[in-house]
Amino acid sequence: MKRTWMFRLSLGLLLCLSLFAYVSTPWGTQTEALAAQTSASATFELILNDTSFGFFDECSGIGSSSEIVKSEIVGSDGQLTKKDPGKITYRNITLSRPISGASSVWSWRNLIEEGAPDLAKRDGTISLSQGAGVDLAIWEVVQAWPVSVTNEGSREVVVIAVQSSSRIM
Predict the structure, then answer these.
(1) What is the 3-state secondary structure (H, E, C) of 83-112?
(2) pLDDT band at 118 (very low <50, low <70, confident <90, very high)
(3) Across-strand partners of 150?
(4) End-to-end CA distance of the chain
(5) Residue 55, Cβ neighbours under 10 Å: how many?
(6) Strand ranges (DSSP E) for the chain?
(7) Using the 8-state DSSP alphabet, how is residue 41 labeled?
(8) Helix axes 30-38, 2-23, angle to 10 degrees
(9) Is the pLDDT higher at 65 or at 6?
(10) In the 8-state DSSP scheme, what is residue 163?
(11) What value does the CA radius of gyration of the chain take, rounded to a whole number of Å?
(12) 45-63 confidence digits (pLDDT tens)
């Protein structure tokens, strides 16, 4: 009797927490909520010019935006504002991981500090993997270079600028 009561309480609590996680997500779909929950165990690998710069447990900023070009059009039903896409801007990408013995991103950043930005610009990919190397997504980055490499507490944070980025898988 006591075990049944504990089991039902645990199951009810789990159901409530799952429902709360689903309802409180900003995306509103169960699939995206599950993807967000699994991202905690996922890793991002930065590969540039066929060289791995290691694995990161956080990645943000991949994307682009367009300026809005407005033009006024006078038609039969009055004046309208037409909106068209303008200049595209690609966001800086931030990767972070626990500090390790790897110094490849620091060496890459040194190229910028030593005045060799053309040597620092590299093409490659950022892949999101989970478990045994199963790729969930891959982004291509073009002319990536390190804006900054810092230690924040026990974490290494790398910010990279890109000429362009696109999701290829």
Answers:
(1) EEEEEEEECCEEEEEECCCCCHHHHHHHHH
(2) very high
(3) 157
(4) 51
(5) 15
(6) 42-48, 51-56, 58-60, 64-75, 78-90, 93-98, 122-130, 134-152, 155-161, 164-167
(7) G
(8) 100
(9) 65
(10) S
(11) 23
(12) 999 999 999 999 999 999 9
Are the C-beta atoms of residues 158 and 102 closer than 8 Å to each other?
no
Residue whose tokens read 């990279």: 160
Mean pLDDT of 125-149: 94
53 and 108 Cβ atoms separated by less than 8 Å: yes
**Exposed/middle/buried for residue 94 (C-beta within 10 Å: 0-12, 13-18, 19+):** middle
Token representation of residue 35: 């993807």
Residues 6 or more apart whose Cβ sits within 8 Å of residue 91: 61, 62, 63, 64, 65
Confidence band, pLDDT 50/70/90 cuts, at residue 25 = very low
Tokens found for residue 51: 């060289």
The secondary element (H helix, E strand) that includes residue 33 is: helix 30-38
**What pLDDT does residue 39 have?**
53
Partnered with residue 78 across adjacent β-strands are 75
Report the C-alpha gap between 68 and 165 in whole angstroms.
20
Q: Are 109 and 147 in contact (CB under 8 A)?
A: no
Burial bucket for residue 61 (CB in 10 Å: 0-12, 13-18, 19+): middle
Specify whether the CB–CB gap between 129 and 43 falls below 8 A.
yes
